[in-house]
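Is it possible to get an amino acid sequence alongside its tokenized fold?
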Amino acid sequence: MTTTYEQILTEPRDNVLLITLNRPDRLNAWTPQMMRELTAAITAANDDPAIGAIVMTGSGRGFCAGADMESVFSGAGGADVENSAGNWVEFCRQSKPLVAALNGAAIGVGITMVVPFDQIVAADGVKISVRFAKLGIVPELASTHFLVSRCGYGAASWLALSGETILADEAQRIGLVDVVCAPDDVVETAVARAGILAANSPLALRLIKELLTQNAAETDLNAAQVREFKALATASASPEHRAAIKAFLERSR
């Protein structure tokens, strides 16, 4: 059964699911409903054996211009992102590979919700801003961890403390995005990269994502190796591994 959403669109592209934020009149501004729909669509993709990876982009001129002020902010209570998003970061890190295709401006939560993704592709000229300080609030969704992991302390501090806007080429230079391409190519580039990931063993991908998440800030190298050996034992016993080895040996004959 095909699920109908109000604020996103979904489209299978072979073994990749393309999700499009679909509030173009609001530059796809983030709402609690949008987050619930994203969670539902990604969950369905994770449960679908025909889908190996997921791409998220935006309709119209923007990717996501931040939180919709009318939907998210209310009086002294401020933004209720925590209750709206649930544990988005854990959800992303346990998901099949996720690739963001920034077709337009990614502002505030428009960038913080995708920094836990596995790859970020941006159209040349796209504007990106971690602008929370300019609103008198702080970044969320573990972005203060992922910004440092991606960019290092200096660049992460500048982005978060200044709230200044940078363009895609600068974002690539500091490691915030992984690929910059022509605006007309951003979705196809992201889908192609997602397809490369989707071609690999789902079990191996899940285990590797888990290791990258757990070991990213691990200072005990022995603990990191222990996790890797445990995951290696699990992967080595899988049918996918046996099939890959068999195919390799047959090609070598």
The chain has two domains: 8-198, 202-252. The radius of gyration is 19 Å. The mean pLDDT is 93. The first strand starts at residue 8 and ends at 13.
